[in-house]
Amino acid sequence: MSAAESEALRAAAERGARALGVGFPLIQAGMGGVAGPALAAAVSDSGALGTVALYKSDGEQAAALVTDTAARTRAVFGVNVIPEVAGRFLAEQIAALLDTADRPLVLNSYGLPPADTTGRVLAAGHRLLVQVGTLADAAAAADLGAHAVVLQGVEAGGHHLGGLRLRELLAGYGQAPPVFAAGAVGNGAELAELLAAGASGALCGTAFVATDESAAHPRYKQALVRSTAEETVVTDRYAIGWPGRPHRVLRSEVTDAPEPLPATMIAWTTVTGRRRPVPRGSAAAPTIESEGLVDQMARYAGLGCTAVRSVRPAAAVVARFRAEFAAALADAAHVPAR
Length: 338
Hints:
By secondary structure, the protein is an alpha/beta fold. It contains 13 helices and 14 strands. 38% of the residues lie in helices and 17% in strands.
């Protein structure tokens, strides 16, 4: 790579950051139950885009989450919605964003949102970020007026929106909005490689689960620290509450059983402010409020878990990405072109 190519990557990163109104083109994923106000604020204060997850919150709960996050940071942050599981609460969540936001924010939609929703959000001066798993949906997101699109490959942890690997998606992307890459992005050097492949930034979930501010259960965090990419698997065993989407998780008794294990209650957790039983096979991730057989719950993890070697403050994760990215560009600029 020449110095000119290195500078082109720097320009791509700046384009991605500008699209979201942040200083560094790294997005913390909206992870239901895990990505609360503390995590979102810490990431945004570090110059990346923190995201607070609304998941299945009703309007009152969503408003409280947005207000709490805004009180913790003066930076731009994202508000994550999942149209296919929010159901009737989606309209309430959007109303909460529009009614409580005290500054322009980023609506981070997991999957394509309804056009009437995006119109209201854009008209109010907020940015739109849409995560997709196919090139057709990427084109649809561009048509909705998205400021940026996230292409999610099957290397990613959590639920999958498509069936292709990340590099295949990036190779076929040709839309106008800047594109962010999701799937096995574990460090700043890998971010630089993805920019060389056409991206303008990255979205990471796994790297932020194992942080001090994450609401993930301590045993979940430690499992990530000990894990490798080979210890993740794409399965359909955690479909209760979110059917129809394959998901990448850490392997467990649930995923490794030859046949699905009985969907008996294995834990308790708090979801949208209520204490609820967790059946085996539930889509709920283990949080700090979970009790019981948390190692059998859905411990979402992408192939980038190999880079997670300790539980650290979110600011330290962002700082590491920044330093590694800068070092990769500096090294590349000093390598003679071939």
